[in-house]
Amino acid sequence: MPDAPAPREELHRRVAQLETQNRDLHHAIEKFETIFRNVPASVYVFDAQGLITAVNEYHIEHPGRGLTRPGDYIGRCAFERPSIVASGLSEAFRGLLEGHDFEAHEVCFPYTSGGEGEMFFSMRGVPLYEAERIIGAAVLSEDVTELVQLRRSFDRVRRLPHLEGLLPICARCKKIRDEAGRWHPVEVYIRDHSKADFSHGLCPTCVVAVWRDDDGNRWEV
User: How far apart are CA 128 and CA 118, in angstroms?
Assistant: First the structure.
């Protein structure tokens, strides 16, 4: 039977093991803090009572619009914040402390902690565990306001009236007949069936063909 390790050797081995674990933990914390500071998204963390314990700089600069500071968040109840209530996410935030993660896309915030003016965020919330016990939660929010506004602009353009197909037009006066059988000057018809409008002038050919003499008489040639 091999001899059991001497108590001193066992102690040194255990100390070396703890030092390695401590270094690994320190590196993990540094990595988390680097991500927390630099990720291009809003991140904040709250404890098991729902009180915010950390908020990153991106949150200060974007939802906070540069007008808030960490002290405006730390120690406040996450799911009772006015912006969270207005967005309709209070229950989802509470659910995190019951072990229910959530994901929500393009959530409208009528206002944020930085002031008035709606913003849109896609959000992901997860519970935080320690030894299978929920100790809080973290919420990550990506600002998608510009994407939503761009899509809205595209939709508005897509819904603009447009002309297509064959238009019945008079071969002589160039009026266009509408669906009810009424005839309209071409500029009136186009104006009424699109977003285009007209300003009138003379092309170079017509400037030569239409002119007035010194007495104000109109001549056509």
Answer: 30
- Token pair belonging to 126: 């997860």
DSSP string of 82-133? HHHHHHT-HHHHHHHTTT--EEEEEEEEEEETTEEEEEEEEEEEEEEEETTE
Spatial distance between the Cα atoms of 143 and 122, rounded to a whole number of angstroms: 7
Q: β-pairing, 218-220 with 210-212?
A: antiparallel
Measured CA to CA, the distance from residue 96 to residue 140 in angstroms comes to: 13
Report pLDDT for 32. 66
Q: Which of 137, 140, 145 is nearest to 123 (CA)?
A: 140
Residue with tokens 């017509």: 206
Residues of the chain with CATH 3.30.450.20: 39-155
CATH of 39-155, one of 3.30.70.100, 3.30.530.20, 3.30.450.20, 3.40.50.12780: 3.30.450.20
158-182 exposure pattern, b = at least 16 Cβ within 10 A, e = fewer: eeeeeeeeeeeeeeeeebbeeeeee
Are 123 and 140 within 8 A, CB to CB?
A: yes
List 54's β-bridge partners, or say none: 45
**Cβ distance 38 to 15 under 8 Å?**
no
**Mind listing the pLDDT tens digit for each residue in 72-113?**
999 999 999 999 999 999 999 999 999 999 999 999 999 887
Per-residue model confidence as pLDDT tens digits over 28-57: 667 667 767 778 889 989 999 999 999 998
Mean pLDDT (whole number) for 193-201: 74
